[in-house]
Amino acid sequence: MRLEIESIDIKDIQAGSKTYGKNGVFYINLKELEELILRDPRIKSVEINLVYPGDKVRILNILDVIQPRCKIDKADADFPGFIGKIQTAGSGRTRSLRGVAVLVSNPCTNRKENALLDMAGPIAEMSPYGKMKNVSIAPTIAAGVEERDFENAVKIAGLKTAIYLARGGEGNPVNEVEVYDLDIPNLDRKSNLPRVACYYQLYSPQFDYLAISDPCFYGTDVTHMMPTVIHPNEVLDGGVVGWLSIKALDTYSIQNHGVIKELYRHHGKDLIFAGVVCAVANLEPVARVRSACMAANLVKNVLGADGVILVKITGGMPHIDLAFTGEESEKLGVRTAIFTQPLTPFGTLADTILFNAESLDLIITSSATFERTKIPWKAEKFLGGNAETRVFCPDPINQYAGDPVIDIEEYLLPGVLDCTGNARVIVKEY
Question: Of 142, 215, 285, 325, whose CB count within 10 A is highest?
Answer without folding.
Answer: 325
